[in-house]
Amino acid sequence: MYVSTKGVVLRCYPFKDNKIIARIYTKDDGLVSFIVKKTKSQTILSQPLTIANIVYKKTKSSSMFYVKETSLNYIYKSIPYDIKKLNYSLVLSEILNKCAKEKNEILYDFIVDSFKWVDNKKTYPCGFDTLFLIKFCELLGISPFNTEIKHDQNLQLNLKEGVFIEHAGFIKKNELVPKKESYELLKLASQNYDELEENRISEIENEKLFNYLLLYISNQMVDVTNLKSIKILKEITA
Question: For the segment 214-237, what is each residue's pLDDT rounded down to a tens digit?
């Protein structure tokens, strides 16, 4: 049976006989592994972040599927040519590849809309990556942020339990986000993307917040602290 869907390419891996495996988060089936031929028509699926229309043969007995037809759903204006936008977006796509598995149409729309938003900005807005992860956690149902939490400078995020607490007690220090960064995360969580340019944070502060969110996701889901793209990004920005 042939089915049609839309998808965002998250990761690509070499495969046998001049083919690649493209892991694509689709709107209708969640994360799917596709066998992609290196032909002119299918080569667009060999590039992470590509947003495409896909027709493929779906069979119950297979875990990987052959692509029949594909076409670009969106053509990027700046991400492929802006090294900063590209590197941060690749980090996010690798995190998505680790964490986004099940079908979630709202999550799919969020991913696509987020990449389109940053693609249409003149420069990379500092904090986009961190706010992306905050909103991503909300959609996965593992968010420690909610509207009932007051922006209290004495609160700390418990990475293991996934809640903000006021009294640390005997909790290990490495299981807590410091008060300053916890407060900054709370403030950032109340914003939308368009507010990033109004409420600017420094790159140093953003890096701290982003790393704490990586630790949070690693405690709640799967380890995302040692991804290849993150190591490359740290080398570039060092």
Answer: 999 999 999 998 888 877 776 656
Residue of 46, 100, 71 lying closest to 221 (CA atoms): 100
Query: Contact at 8 Å (CB) between 155 and 166?
Result: yes
Partner residues linked to 24 by β-bridges: 9, 32
Closest of 185, 4, 197, 27 to residue 111, by C-alpha: 27
DSSP 169-183: TT--GGGB--HHHHH
Look up the pTM and report it: 0.93
Please state the domain count of the chain.
2
Q: Which residues contact 151 (CB under 8 A, 6 or more apart)?
A: 183, 186, 187, 190
Q: Which residue has the tokens 């220090």?
A: 173
Domain boundary, last residue among 53, 74, 95? 74
| Residue 123: partners with Cβ closer than 8 Å, 6 or more residues away | 82, 84
Domain boundary residue, one of 47, 74, 101: 74
We report the CATH number of the domain holding residue 8 as 2.40.50.140
**Residue appearing with tokens 């495409």:** 52
Show the domain range for 59: 2-74
